[in-house]
Amino acid sequence: MSQPLKDKVALVAGATRGAGRGIAVELGAAGATVYVTGRSTRAKRSEYDRPETIEDTADLVTEAGGHGIAVPTDHLDPAQVRTLVDRIADEQGRLDVLVNDVWGGEKLFAWDSPIWEHDLDKGLRLLRLAVETHAITSHYALPLLLRRPGGLVVEMTDGTADYNRDNYRSSFFYDLAKVSVLRMAFSLGHELGPRGATAVALTPGWLRSEMMLDTYEVREDNWRDALERVPHFAISETPRYVGRAVAALAADPDVARWNGESLSSGQLAPIYGFTDLDGSRPDAWRYLVEVQDAGKPADTDGYR
Length: 304
Known about the structure:
Layout: E1 9-13, H1 18-29, E2 33-38, H2 54-64, E3 67-72, H3 78-92, E4 97-100, H4 120-145, E5 152-156, H5 161-166, H6 172-192, E6 198-203, H7 210-215, H8 239-251, E7 262-264, H9 265-272, H10 284-292
Helix pairs in contact: 1-2, 1-8, 3-4, 4-6, 8-9
């Protein structure tokens, strides 16, 4: 198999599960050494209290053909992030790809609850996890990434810039978090571009994460059983799909063309020629606008 990222080093911050895990595995499949971080380990779970661990993710990276290295890290703690980056510098001497995927807010926001009714502590915690972690990680990791030209920073969010500009995203705190990350990529693009690196914002579509599958009481091998209850779930995608988007960006010698842009897995799939695990190319954000939000019956024909 071709491994275009052989000898490249990546850090996926927030790789315990979901998109972070899918990205780490696909970077591994492309041959990269991938440092995977998070707070859930085999020794101790985070407040999520879920079974996925960063050690499991690291094993999957190695099984895919890369080298996975799990480093327990709380990205709200600057000292821990500084220690993490110092370790990467000591062991590898370089960092080629930084994926800021720390999130941790699924249990902290209330759907359609206005700010004056929303739990303030949970809302502020969400913003710290979704925004402050990214800023702390970039502060410490970017000097290492800039040691060599061609570095890539991927800010993971939910929704494209166009979609989030025109649509309210569930709650004040969730909306603000996801728009803030989009703006981070824009700002980093201005700071990194002249210094030989690239920053982008990237969103998956409707992600079949471990938590989403559990919510609908299905597994990856029978996820379509949920369509009777949630018909538009038909446009959903695996975490590996957005992982392949990141791997394609990281391997693109002309990745600077995307600097500062908002991108999606479905947008990049036909450009780079990758598919989801089932061979399809779901384009969720176009589907949401043209089908789901337009009030049409679920029909993915022409969208995957």
